[in-house]
Design brief:
alpha/beta, Aconitase, domain 3, 3 domains, 14% strand, binds (3R)-3-hydroxy-3-methyl-5-(phosphonooxy)pentanoic acid, binds iron/sulfur cluster
Length: 395
């Protein structure tokens, strides 16, 4: 990979150890994937934050990287969810040993200049690249959203690579950064109207079929941004999709080359309903309904507030979101309505990266196909997959 004189000096340690180590990662990646050079990025989204997923080794790596204070992110860079609500972990019943380690991890990232936004929906809270910007994002649903709905350009980066890119302000130019790799290779004709959890079911089916390919959807009805985040999260979890197109909806659909695609799939009501059922792993009633995978938008919190207003919820209810979105939900009175009904708006964390398996829960109710896919494997718990209005039960 070609390096400028300054980039070579960065590799040689002339700008300090943090930058040298970060350049090591970027150059190794660039060489493996045949990148021609590094390209400037405007934004980074860094995953690998939960103590549950990175453990003590991850914490040590971060503290070591920040040691000589020589390199910090100077572009817009934000963090993925950690394993606790950073402020209210005690009230919500998170284990203390975990919360202490978790705060150290988040502080180590902040020392490297990564903002403690702690969300997988950074595009709702100020980390919003522009169309065709080069970026380095790592949480897979956020990658799918920023590539597909915003039309910025990123590969599915690992956490350490996105961190290195944030610190250097550059990423290797290959893969989805190049226009020719953003073409569709599967056309999906959907013959039924979709709503709510149907979008997750569609994403789950197509992610499995397309793997790391680029699906192009022809839908009967127009999805909103919440539907697109649900769809992308599911595509990126059952497969390793980084980019999808929706006809007449996403910004690059007309340059996706749909007319030249040979592989076609037809999806109807039957396939969607079968998948919805398949994602549920038990007949038992959930003891925790956990919404917000990916992290909830203000409209999604409002929807829940409308459903539970003036009622008492039987099971526990968490809606996971960022601290920024919750601040507005507080002002709008949604949080108060949800808390009066017995639920919680939980900040920072989520049902997958929190240690919920250590917190006495057995069956989790979710409206996200990604969560339904990961909770059994990453937390060892059963899931019920349905729309919000069917999951919440009242006294
Ligand atoms: C499951 C996931 O959404 C969250 C866990 O990621 P991490 O702990 O930030 O590495 C990661 C992903 O899908 O990229
Ligand atoms: S598992 Fe879901 S809520 Fe958790 S970080 Fe990933 S997309 Fe976000």
């Amino acid at each position: 990979m070609f390096l400028t004189k300054k980039e070579q000096e960065m590799c040689d340690g002339e700008y300090g150890e943090t930058i040298r180590k970060s350049m090591d990662i970027l150059v190794a990646l660039g060489d493996i994937y045949g990148a021609s050079k590094l390209v400037d990025i405007t934004s980074a989204q860094v995953s690998g934050v939960s103590y549950k997923t990175i453990g003590d080794a991850g914490l040590e790596y971060l503290e070591d990287l920040a040691q000589d204070d020589s390199g910090k992110a100077t572009i817009n860079a934000s963090l993925n969810p950690p394993g606790t609500d950073l402020d209210n972990w005690e009230e919500l019943g998170f284990p203390e040993y975990f919360a202490i380690k978790q705060n150290k991890i988040v502080d180590a990232y902040a020392n490297l200049g990564i903002a403690k936004t702690c969300t997988c929906t950074p595009y709702l809270v100020g980390n919003v690249p522009r169309f065709r910007d080069h970026v380095s994002w790592s949480e897979s649903s956020a990658v799918a959203y920023v590539n597909s709905v915003i039309g910025a350009r990123t590969n599915r980066e690992g956490g350490p690579a996105a961190l290195a890119a944030a610190i250097v302000g550059k990423t290797p130019l290959y893969g989805f950064h190049l226009e020719q790799n953003r073409k569709a290779n599967l056309v999906v004709n959907v013959s039924t109207e979709l709503k709510g959890a149907d979008f997750g079911a569609l994403g789950y089916i197509i992610g499995k079929a397309v793997g790391s390919g680029v699906p192009y959807f022809k839908l009967q009805n127009t999805p909103n941004n919440n539907d697109l985040k649900t769809l992308g999260a599911a595509l990126a979890s059952s497969g390793s999709v980084a980019l999808y197109h929706v006809e007449n909806v996403t910004p690059e659909f007309d340059i996706a080359g749909e007319a030249d695609v040979e592989d076609l799939m037809f999806i109807g009501e039957k396939e969607i309903n079968e998948t919805r059922q398949k994602l549920t792993t038990t007949d038992k009633t959930p003891d925790l309904i956990c919404l917000g995978c990916p992290h909830a938008s203000l409209e999604e919190i409002k929807q829940v507030a409308t459903i539970v207003q003036g009622k008492t919820i039987k099971n526990k209810l968490w809606i996971c979101t960022s601290v920024s979105v919750k601040a507005t939900a507080d002002r709008m009175g949604y949080t108060q309505i949800i808390e009066s009904a017995g639920g919680n708006v939980v900040c920072d964390t989520c049902m997958v990266v929190a240690p919920i398996e250590e917190m006495g829960f057995e069956v989790i109710g979710v409206n996200s196909a990604k969560a339904a896919n990961y909770v059994p494997s990453m937390c060892g718990l059963d899931v019920v997959y349905n729309d919000v209005e069917n999951l919440i039960q009242f006294e």
